[in-house]
Fold these 2 entries.
Entry 1:
Amino acid sequence: MRLPNGRELWVEREGHGEPIVLLAGGPAASHVTFHPFMHRLADAYEIVYVDYFGRGRSGRPAVWSDITFARDVEDVAALIETLGLDPVHLYAASYGGLVAQQLALDRPDLLRRLLLVNTLHSPQMWLENHLNINHEIANQFPEVWDEILALRAQGLPSSDPRIQDRFRAVASAAARFRDPLNAAKVSSEPGAFNQALYDVFTGGDIDFALGGEVARIPDFRPRLSAIETPMMIVAGRYDRALHPRLQQDFRTAAPQAEFVVLEHSGTAAHVEQPDELETLIRRHFR
């Protein structure tokens, strides 16, 4: 669909009932990560899958640096208004949770309820996420970590394909899933992750240092208590990147929110504990 600002977003809709808009992570991932899990909710809700501009099947900018956090927030607000869905339930994972927090502060009129899953609250938390992954790789895959350090010694940024190949080979197993075999269950398709955009958006060396658009995202902690939209925050016990200690910050910053730790999942609760997550979604989006 074409937004009033001219940007084109890919949108899929299924089911009937109160709308749930799904915001993916990345910040370069697409809506396909939610397939097929969210289909189970289509009996009671209208499920709205969307690709941010420049991701997945959506339109592309002239240059990747045209994509900013503020424009992602603007696009989600415009999507909700253009489709005439407001107010909506908003389900937001990882980077999507940052977009959702800004939207809840700027446009609470568009939201009915908010559910944040394994998300972040600040650029610093984003960096700690990567440093935690590095720690896990160094301990669990020391031979791979030695290769990464050898490439770093040559002056290569973490966005270099040779370094990324090594991160991709082990990062999910090391830090993202309770059971590493579950990584293969995450839905994908060609083009589902835009690496070129990711490198520009994160500054090219995000595994070791903040940069790019990420460094300009607000720290939401001082303002989270002002969010009046009913909010649930879900963390995974075995997410060793955005781990429960980091997620505890939400308890302090947003005492009005319900905070839940799923005991048998990592980053992707919809893959590792789908039944438990479904129960939470149906209870919160009521």
Entry 2:
Amino acid sequence: MRKLLITKVGIALLALLMINCGWKPEVTAVPMTAPWSAMNLPVKDNAIVWKSESNEFRAVHKEDKKSVTKNYTEALKSQGWQLGKFDQSGDRYYVDMSKGTEKLNLEFYDFNNTGVVITKQ
């Protein structure tokens, strides 16, 4: 009986430790500002925005690079952005998008799972 109790307590402690050791990127969250806040970027779940300035946006995502790239390009396409250059040949993925005279450069890289940098030109 005592062994069973010790085993149950041990399993419960292990479960608590595993829950607390989840995804915790080493960045400080900042509020999302214009123009990024109007672009419907996929940052609601499992993401932390850590830089949001008028010409540069940075976020980190729990998902893999391929999924994050797809989510961003689809979100921007739905806002009228056109896909330009798309390069995923190396360890970083690069995407150029345009809407009228506006241009965005997106970069997806390995950083606490997936890091994203968008620069507006």
